[in-house]
Amino acid sequence: MQGKRNTRPRPGFRLVPLLKGAVLAAPLFFSGAASAMVPGQRIPDRFKAISFSSLPGWQNDDHAAALAGFLRLCRKPEILSQDTVFPSIATADLQKLCNDAEKAAKSGDEAPRDFFESRFTPHRIAQSGFVTGYFEPELAASRVRTDIFRYPLLKKPEGLEAITLENRPQDWPETLSHGRRVEGRVTEMPDRSAIMDGKLDPENLELVWLADPIDAYFVHVQGSARLRLADGSAMRVGYAGKTGHPYTGIARLLVTRGEGTPEDFTAAGLRSWLEAHPEERDQLFRQNRSFIFFREVDEIGVNDGPVGAAGLPLVAGRSLAVDPSFIPYGSLVFVASALKVHDSDDGPFRRLMVADDTGSAIKGPARGDIFVGSGQTAGAIAGEIRHKADFTILVPNIRLGPAGVAAD
Q1: SS (H, E, C) 51-77
Q2: Using one digit for the tens of pLDDT, what is the confidence trace for 283-305?
Q3: Can you give the pTM of this predicted structure?
Q4: Is 5 domain-assigned?
Q5: How confident is the model at residue 11 (pLDDT cuts 50, 70, 90)?
Q6: Distance separating alpha carbons of residues 345 and 261, to the nearest angstrom
Q7: Do residue 102 and residue 176 come from a single domain?
Q8: Distance (Å, rounded) from C-alpha 254 to C-alpha 273?
Q9: Residue 264: which domain range?
Q10: Last residue in a domain, options 272, 297, 322
Q11: Separation CA 143–CA 155 (nearest Å)
Q12: Domain count within the chain
């Protein structure tokens, strides 16, 4: 997910204001629907209850920003989704929690921190974690093909759908997450290699055209981009679907081939290699069978972040891409890492974040990708983030019964 640019930050640029001044995206892990879990089921073993006092840097975080994010959720109940990891919260209990949050926000001072500490219990993920960074590219583009703009981003084909227990055909490969319904039958989509060879060309799916195939590939990895169009207008594109084939990191393939070390192949290092080896570039792209489709995003403001997988605009320094099969969308996640906050005296990264996005490369219970922002400066910062981290989920106490058992 890390398509970073090798660009020096602008003079005076500070990441800390982005982090501390941002409003958290809405936590989605509260639901008024009936719980999908068996009453009395325990919190999964990978979560271990701890105290707030054992969270490094907790007391120095911006709790008011986190509380603002919680209230944003409370005002948009339509974005609530069913949580398959923790039991859901009844509508009346959620309303009480939101009312308490409103009071805390109006009280100010230490009230936001007190709200979290009195109504949530931290649960640390037992295994060691790892964070990277990602950003939203800003690129030149054209709505029509020209001699300069020759590399398309494609729209979602008709009939593309995610594979679920309800629509999964017999003998469908476990590694294939999406398929295409044709005449009532779900079939496998062509992979990246076949699409590069023109398999979908007759369908005229081209949404917009870019000038550089490497840029186009990195937009696939990032999942979104801001585009400056040739006619002077602007557009934003975002994720619309994928072929469903497994993601393969091409930087890792280069390391396996002995082309360099993991440290050599940050996003900037990978871009440099691709630019220096044009004759090998396309063949390397083909090794990643996963292929992403896009849509034009027009429902958010120009100053908002791109829309993440949870359906919310991402917030720089506060949005975290996760594997939603382990960390539900909208979970409040406290990330503690040796990562240094750029151009500040704040020391290591200690932030309460929201799990509101995902990515093909983000797999496992303790894997996260920090959204840094948009543009080249954000890309330069994101490219340096490859750090070990501890992940702690804040679970509302009304989800919990005695001894960490989920309430009925």
Answers
A1: CHHHCCCHHHCCHHHHHHHHHHHHCCH
A2: 999 999 999 999 999 887 767 88
A3: 0.68
A4: no
A5: very low
A6: 30
A7: no
A8: 9
A9: 136-297
A10: 297
A11: 12
A12: 2
Residue 244 belongs to a domain with what CATH number?
2.40.240.50
Which of 78, 25, 17, 23 is closest to 308 using CA atoms? 25
- Together in a domain, 226 and 292: yes
Residue 368 maps to a domain: yes
Q: Using an 8 Å Cβ cutoff, are 206 and 154 in contact?
A: yes
The CATH number covering residue 347 comes to: 2.40.40.10
Q: Cα(314)–Cα(311) distance, rounded to whole angstroms?
A: 9
Domain endpoint, select from 266, 297, 328: 297
Q: Are residues 72 and 150 in the same domain?
A: no
- Return the amino acid letter for 25: A
CA 130: distance to chain centroid? 14
Residue count of the chain, please give it. Answer: 408
CA end-to-end span of the chain? 38
Count H helices, E strands: the chain?
10, 17
pLDDT of 384 > 70? The answer is yes
Letter for the amino acid at 16? Answer: V
The DSSP bridge pattern shows strands 348-357 and 332-340 to be antiparallel
The whole-angstrom separation of Cα 387 and Cα 385 is 6
Q: Where are the beta strands (DSSP E) in 265-331?
A: 292-297, 319-321
Beta-strand relationship, 386-396 and 206-210: unpaired
Half-sphere exposure of 222 (CA within 13 A, CB side): 37
344: pLDDT strictly greater than 70: no
